[in-house]
Amino acid sequence: MTNWMNPVVIMQDAAIFEKIILVMTGLYIWEIMVTLPYDWSIITGKRKFKYPMAFYFLCRYSLLLSCIGINIALNTSKALNCQALYVFNELVGNTAVATASTLLMLRTVAIWSRSPYILYPLVVLSLGQWAILLHGVIIVNASWSSVAGQCVVDGAAPIFLDLIYIYTMSFDLIVLVLSCWGLVRTSGRSDLWTLLFKDGIVYFIVAFSANCCAAVLILLNLNPAMNIIMSVPAAVASAIVACRGFVRLSTWNTREVYLPSHVQTGPGRQAMSGAVHTSNGSNTKKGPGFDMTFAKPPRIATLSGLTSPSNANPKVADGPGVHISMEAYTTHDRRQPSPYHGDEKDYELDLEEGSESDVMATPGSVTYTHSDNPHIRLPEAPSWVKEMADKLPTYQPIPPQGRSKHLQSRPRQWALLLSTLGSFSLLASWRVLSGPHAHTHHVPLHAQRVLDECATMRQMPGPSASFASRLRSERFEPGTKAQYIHNATIWTGLKDGHDVIQGDILLQNGLIWAVGQIPEDIIKQTGTGVEHINAHGAWVTPGIFDIHSHIGVDALPLLQGTDDTNSIKGLTLPWLRSMDGINVYDEALALSVSGGVTTSLILPGSADAIGGQAFVIKLRQTSEGSPSSMVLEPPFSLNNTDKPSTHPPHWRHMKHATGENPSRVYEGTRMDTMWAFRSAYEEARKVRDAQDAYCVKAESGLWNGLGPDVPKDLKWEALVDVLRGKVKLNIHSYSPSDFDGLVRLSNEFKFHISAIHHAHEAYLVMPLLEKFYGGKPAVAMFATNARYKQEAYRHSEFAPQILHEAGFDVIMKSDHPVLNSRYLLYEAVQAHMYGLPANKAIQAVTTTPARTAGFGHRLGLVQPGYDADVVLWDSHPLALGATPKQVFIDGIPQLSKPFVSEKSSHLQHAPSTPEWKTGAKEALKFKGLPPIKGKSSRKVAFINIGTIWKRTGEERALIEVVSEQANGVMVFINGSLSCESLQDATGCASSMEGDRGIHVVDLKGGCMAPGLVSFGGQLGLIEIEQEPSTNDGEVYEPFDSKFALVGDLDRAVDGLSFEGRSMLLAYRAGVTTSIAAPMGSSLISGLSVAFSNGGAHPLEHGAIVHNITALHVKVAPGGQPSVSTQIGLLRQILLSKDESKITGWFRKVAKGELPIIVHVNSADIMAKLILLKGEIEEKAGSAIKMAFFGALEAHILAPEIASADIGVVVNPARATPMSWDSRRILPGLPLSEDTVITSLLKHNVTVAIGILEGWEARNTRFELAWAALGSKVQLSKGQALALGSTNLEKIFGIPSSAVEGDWVAYRSGDMFDLGSQVVGAASERRRQVDLF
Fold first, then answer.
1. Cα distance between residue 1198 and residue 20, in whole Å
2. Entry pTM
3. At what angle do helices 670-699 and 7-34 cross, to 10 degrees?
4. How far is Cα 852 from Cα 756, in angstroms, rounded to an integer?
5. Predicted local confidence at residue 1211, as pLDDT
6. What is the rounded CA–CA span in Å between residue 913 and residue 833?
7. CA–CA distance from 1109 to each of 1066, 1091, 1191, 1294 (Å)?
8. Which run of H or of E encompasses 1122?
9. Cα separation of 627 and 640, whole Å?
10. Which residues pair with 960 in a beta bridge?
């Protein structure tokens, strides 16, 4: 189907418009020359000038001026004021149209004898038409195009153009109807009657048809050129038929003269009636109500006398005839020579020049005679006729034999001459006015190449027609064995993600060969090399597609030499390509594959407004080993490969960014960023327009003056393809102000945006997103990662659900390494937990991103013919901790010896979703900031408890007590547990009876557990990480001169703030206590504090759990001073005997009175610290309470750490080799049997987990579940719970009494269930219960 708004199509239509103008101009010049004698007779005075002739001249020559003006606009080679020229063209053109209708109206008024009932309405309608047409001179916008080298129409007002044409057609129709009515109501039929009737019909048909075509095109509003393409033909047609009708009536002559019998009588007049007697005996014939006389032929028709040859046969009228009462309409005849002697003259029939000159039939017998003809008798004429006859000139006719042959042949000569001149003018207008375009063009040798390139530019991306029938993937690696997976539970992705089948999958030639119950003969056809895999009912899905990743360009471990994510050379850099920075040795590639990720869209970073071009890669290592070999469907121009003629181009991809990132990097504002966008796209538009103009000329065969190559600019060619709709555009954007700017930008330059990324506030302005050019984009987002900057502050965990219900495509993404893409599926798990349907959650990381990126024809479904990218899971994909058993990319197994853990049966089903009653509504109602502080209650009873977790003994061991009937009860008064009953629900009845103030909460078989503890995200010290005014700030470094101003260690308690959103969300998720250390990046950070996440302020009772929990230091390589200097300084301070200030705190550490937490990852540095600890303990004679934080390589020293009695807080809990000193991680299943956590636990090390950022605290309970499920030997629930509670308390020296009174209530499950929900928290220390 033709895309009428395609620039190439518009240019082609404009070229057609130009040719139509030339044809119309030639035709009209020919018309003027053919009818020029009539004009000349008026100009020279031979024909009397009448006022309607003013409209006649205005019509003819206004249109001529308009044609000339339009040709100037289309053919001039010098820049000019195109808008002024087009205003002039519209003015004279519309004048021609209006005068054409006016001429028709005047004739109708004449037919109706100036009846006021006809005259006044027509005048009003005519004035309306004039008003509309004169206003229409400003509705066409035109400008000079340096690319096209001529004036181009930028746009018109289609509605107003429609009004012009519809009004004109309606007016002409009214005039036609009135004319026909005026003629038909008479019973007489004469030559004049026929002339008037037929001219009206012809005029209307021609004018109406032309105007109708123009109106229809405007109604369709295909493009600016098509809107006006028929305007000139309509005006020319109207003008020609109107002027021709005027001339025909003015010069009309026939053998009949009609004289109406019913006229007014006035002074000096007599009523005339009777019969007409002629010399040959004919008589008159009475019509109904009047008498009419006729004379043949009316050679001379004046009121002084009517002549007729002697052999004439008079004709009698049957009706009243035609009464013409307009001054302009007269008739003359040169067709026959006069039968009388004298000079040949033009004699006029002045039909009712005025009311006093009306010609009437006489009441008696009237016979016309002439003094020179004795055969014709003329009775005495009335006195008023004689008086008027005396005033008229006398003419002397000449006999016919007096005319020479030369005079007789003159009409033919004139016709021949005018025809020749008309033809010549038509040819001249085409050749001269069209300029060089009409010259002969030589077809150059490069013509076919250019035409192919022009055709390719217009060709839209997509799979070829033969793609679906392919038998081998272009990515197939020779020697790859076929894979037969049988007895699997297959999520195919079909039926909107609801299609799940039990069956088999055959992978062959890099493709999914068959799916379902596969017959044995098909398996045999693959040969003897097929690998059989019994899935034992395990789940199979398409490979995960990460639509937002920097894997390869932000390679792990992070090193300066492999940092190729962002260029900071300018705000707009569309010429950069992410594939130029892909590091094939990125450690994250194999890790991501082990999480089921098979394909990623590698985006440039978001430092720039236009960061560059993006590329989709498959994550497997290829035999070639190059980044290019990893790219999926690369542009055919890449590596100089030629596109097969039968194949459409592949999709391209690009990254844009708005908002805070470009503003921060370039120290600008959103205004600067948006201007940078517009400037860049304007440059791209210039290139595109130059290409289109070049291709239109080339495709029209106009090769003269064209260079050998289509205009290009390598810097802007990618943006040109954006304008052509050939690029999948992905935009980093968060807030409504940025969305609105993008809406305006996309509509200004007419390009579509495939996906908005991050989009934390998209769910708040969904109608705005629907205004993007080409339709609403997909939304790629995080599940819970938020509040790290202002534009991410209003994010809601319910956003995926809200957007889905509004009809948006929802995609979950990693932004690797912001989030480890290995765990991208976990983002879908969380989205499902907060209300996104299960089918849409899986689609959000498979089908939807594949389709959005333009690969829906080969990725995202388990379907025959698709790429053999599938994942075999150990549990349901949405179950917490789901891990691949095997991953296939292009049919090649990616896990050589996977470690697999058999999961429990309840994990083989999609988890349930908690009962979020008002979450989504509240998020919308409060614009992303709903009230999240709990509602305090003095007395609360939690009923129907299924399990209670209790602390026991000094070691704080956690034991699980189960209520067999799930009818346990716990009653809290002022935060303290007052009654507990597991086996007998009536045990606490007395505590609940008679108290109307008690609040009863049904846990529906849920559990009560100790409050969780979090450390690492600096909750209470950081609210919005990138907004300094919301944070405590950085501490002075001990090697900084400013440090001397303080002279003591920073205490986190002094900078603590409460009621931050991340703090309160953590509290609502069961994390009752947090530990925060001062924000320091140097060797010595300061002293940490433990506090309640539910506290209102530092002075609230129980808000501060422990003022000083530990001293924090950081030992890391890569900076100054060196690692050895850092350890040497620690040794010196720890051995100091000084009890004051800084050294005093370290003295407490050396005495074992204060724990010391060392932030460290490297096993080598940890080994030095173990030695240092032993050295200090030996000299100080006391045990140091030391723990490592981070410690991602701690498993290497697990026995030594255990022997040194050093605790470990692993952070992040799911290890990632972000830095060089953490590159030797234990990744866990399926790549290793153990994790860092399980390895340390095997050696009885006290282990806990930490977080990197504050927003992660709310997910602590799920991180504990991951820790339990991430190794082959799974942890018990008690062990997992201790990682986030009692073990942290022990490491930081928090007294058990300070936290043991904290309880959390979970409804519909325990703390590890995705379907459970925290509904309350009790705090004995704070003396209150908060309900959520």
1. 87
2. 0.72
3. 50
4. 11
5. 97
6. 5
7. 20, 10, 20, 7
8. none
9. 16
10. 949
Whole-angstrom distance, CA of residue 1214 vs CA of residue 1287: 18
**E strands along 16-147, which residues?**
140-145
The Cα 936–Cα 50 span in angstroms is 99
**CB of 1119 closer than 8 Å to CB of 1084:** no
Give the pLDDT confidence of 1056-1086 residue by residue, as tens digits: 999 999 999 999 999 999 999 999 888 999 9
Q: Estimate the share of the chain in helix, then strand, then coil, as percent rounded to the nearest 5.
A: 40, 15, 45
Q: Are 807 and 850 in contact (CB under 8 A)?
A: no
Residue type, 703: W
What 3 state SS string does 241-295 have?
A: HHHHHHHHHHCCCCCCCCCCCCCCCCCCCCCCCCCEECCCCCECCCECCECCCCC
Locate 402 and state its tokens: 């007096």
Q: Look at the block and give the residue holding tokens 């008696």.
A: 364
CB-CB neighbours of 1195 under 10 Å: 26
Sequence-ordered list of residues with C-beta below 8 angstroms from that of 455, at least 6 positions apart, any chain: none
Nearest CA to 1302 among 946, 1002, 972, 963?
Answer: 972
Q: How far is it, in rounded angstroms, from Cα 137 to Cα 552?
A: 60
Pairing of strands 305-306, 301-302: antiparallel
Model pLDDT for residues 483-541, shown as the tens digit of each residue:
999 999 999 999 999 999 999 999 999 999 999 999 999 998 887 789 999 999 999 99
Amino acid at 776: K
DSSP per-residue codes, 580-623: GG--TT-HHHHHHHTTTEEEEEE---SSSSEEEEEEEEE-SPPS
180 vs 129, 177, 197, 1090, 1138, CA distance in Å? 21, 5, 6, 100, 120
User: What radius of gyration do the chain's Cα atoms show?
Assistant: 48
Q: Whose CA is closest to 875, among 1230, 503, 1238?
A: 1230
How is residue 402 annotated by DSSP? G
Q: Is 9 helix (H, G, I), strand (E, B) or coil?
A: helix
For residue 158, the model assigns a pLDDT of 61
CA distance 816 to 1166: 28
φ, ψ (nearest 5 deg) of residue 635: -55, 140
Tell me the two tokens of residue 1138.
Answer: 């000084």
The dihedral over CA atoms of 1143, 1146, 1148, 1150, expressed in degrees to the nearest 10, equals: -120
Asked whether 61 and 43 are in contact (CB, 8 A), the reply is: no
Which amino acid, 806?
A: A
1230, HSE (Cβ side, Cα atoms, 13 Å): 27
Contact residues for 1297 (Cβ-Cβ < 8 A; gap 6+): none
How far is 382 from 269, CA to CA, in rounded Å?
A: 7
Q: Output the CA torsion sign for 1227, 1232, 1236, 1238.
A: positive
pLDDT at 334: 37
Q: 597-602 and 544-549 as β-strands: parallel, antiparallel, unpaired? A: parallel
The pLDDT averaged over each successive group of 10 residues in the chain (1332 residues) is: 66 80 88 87 84 83 86 76 81 84 80 82 87 76 63 64 74 80 65 63 73 77 79 84 78 44 36 36 36 34 33 38 40 36 37 34 37 41 44 41 41 39 36 37 81 90 92 95 97 98 97 96 86 97 98 97 95 97 98 98 98 98 95 79 71 98 97 98 97 93 89 96 97 98 98 98 98 97 97 98 98 98 98 98 98 98 98 98 98 97 94 94 97 94 95 87 91 94 75 77 96 96 96 81 73 97 98 95 93 97 96 91 94 90 92 97 98 96 97 98 98 96 97 97 98 97 95 92 97 92 96 97 96 96
User: Beta partners for 534?
Assistant: 486
DSSP category for residue 901: -
Task: Answer whether 1287's CB lies under 8 Å from 1296's CB.
Answer: no
Helix (H) or strand (E) holding 547: strand 544-549
* Residue partners of 379: CB distance under 8 A and separation at least 6: 364, 365, 366, 367
Task: Output the pLDDT for position 302.
Answer: 29
